[in-house]
Amino acid sequence: MSNTQNLKGKKIAILATNGFEQSELIQPRDKFIEQGAEVDVLSIDEQTTIKAWDKDNWGKDVNVDKQVTSVNPEDYDALVLPGGQINPDVLRTNEDAVAFIKSANSAASIKAIGAICHGPWLLVESGLAKGATLTSFPSIQTDLKNAGATWVDEEVATHAKLVTSRNPDDIPAFVSKISEMVAQ
Fold first, then answer.
1. Running DSSP on this structure, what letter comes out for residue 41?
2. I need a labelling partner for 149 at 20 to 30 A (CA). Which of 48, 109, 125, 140 fits?
3. Any catalytic annotation for residue 159?
4. Which of 143, 138, 99 minimizes the C-alpha distance to 121?
């Protein structure tokens, strides 16, 4: 598995709102851009910036490129769902965000849907966890199992289009696997 893929001409969406884990959005975004991809940060509720959670306090503001309601999953090659406790908990109650994730799973153009840390909560809410082998932050493993997933404690777990990882330490492997799938 190569650490660097050529993603020139590829488009990646990152769906997040206030309270995303800072490293889980910023590091993948920057790595995908370094590899040549165009990356859009998508959000909800007409937000123009969203605020990170950085380990134990509020972190950086990140600019929102587009609203989830104004884009089509078919315009992207991958969707990334960062974790943090607040971000996925808010997004899973947002009908537009959940509908976008469901549509992304059916979109022929989408090669990978990545979810890290608490991000797999969104796979539960969108019905994608059922029957899938997934990993996550350990505290939500029961939620994933109750949704019909097989939970594994691995750096990266893949199942069809789904790519999941446990925590910020897994970001290099997480980004590498998504990049590999998108570059194909």
1. E
2. 109
3. no
4. 143
CA dihedral in degrees (55, 57, 63, 69; nearest 10)?
A: 80
**In one letter, which amino acid is 151?**
W
CATH of 11-183, one of 2.70.98.10, 3.40.50.880, 3.20.20.30, 3.90.1710.10: 3.40.50.880
Which secondary-structure segment (H or E) carries 28? helix 22-34
The residue among 48, 58, 43 whose CA lies nearest residue 90 is 43
Query: For residue 85, how many other CB atoms are within 10 A of its CB?
Result: 17
* Each residue's pLDDT tens digit, 128-147: 999 999 999 999 999 999 99
Q: Which of 118, 161, 166, 177 is catalytic?
A: 118
Confidence (pTM): 0.97
Domain boundaries, the chain: 11-183
Helix (H, G, I), strand (E, B) or coil at 30: helix
Contact 184, 10 (CB under 8 A): no
| Contact by Cβ (8 Å): 165, 81 | no
The span from the CA of 81 to the CA of 70, in Å, is 18
